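Subject: Interface between my chains keeps coming out wrong

I've been trying for a while to get a sensible model of this assembly. When I model each chain on its own everything looks fine, but I need the whole thing in one frame so I can look at the contacts. Pasting all components below, labels as-is. Any help appreciated, I'm running out of ideas.
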Amino acid sequence: MSREVLLFVSVFLASAVEGVEAVTIVLAAGLTRGWRSALIGVGAALVVLAAIVAALGPALTALPIDVLRLFVGGLLLVFGLQWLRKAMLRASGFEAVHDEGATFAQEVAAARAAAREPSAIDAYGFTVSFKGVLLEGLEVAFIVVTFGSNQHDVPLAALAALSAVLVVVAAGAAARAPLSRVPENTLKYGVGVMLTSFGTFWGAEGAGASWPGDDVAIPALIAFVLVTSIVLVGALRRRHARLITAAGGAA
Amino acid sequence: MTPIRALLAFLYDFVVGDDPTIAVAVVLALGVTAAIAAGGVSAWWVMPCAVIGALIGSLHRAIRV
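Reply #2:
Try treating it as a single job with all components included. I did that and got this:
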């Protein structure tokens, strides 16, 4: 295999991995918080990314990527855990028990009214998309600069990265319609699992830890968080059932 | 409420959310990870353990009746 083909395949695969991470986050934000805010977040991230790449060029490798990972990972993890917690409480029946009062009805009405407001930008959707695309975009830019510089062919590395991003974005767009038919709480549960897993991965990397298998650890983390949360929801459901039985016996 | 207070309240609600202990646990876990990694010891396992611990603690507090 020629050196050019090796460079193209290496950059394509490495960029595709980063692209899948960014598209997963944008899909999650778009499906649950609305596409307008998520896509504005993507656009803003691409503008900032273009400005950084144009300003720094080859000096891009001097950016403190670990600091960015630590900050983005920590924030995604806090968001993800809050989403996952809420989705688990709903899945187990506890959220309904706590929200039967008038406050819940008011909050639902307010949320529905806000959801119908077409001009409002959802801060969560925007921020999650923005940070995900900016971080992954920077990583793709690092890949292009480092691989391309080593092989003295940055344009070919850039072409490989662009091809990978286009393929991944097309696959994400194709997956959008089937995903939009998934029930809302299931979707939020899935998003909570994804954000928690990515946040855990990036946060630990940013803090200086090395994952066994590098990016291969991401699917393992997703499986770990998903299985653990399912076990916890099972325990919560049993406890909820006991509380209902006890309340029935007392009445 | 002044605009600065309103902004701070929004940022707090935006970042911290319903359960402040989750944000505190994440910051502590990242600090412990950094400290262990700086000592040259493998530290990847800290975050998954902290995540599950924070989740269990937060759920426990939420269902307490």
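Reply #3:
Confirming on my end. Residues 3-250 of chain A form one domain.
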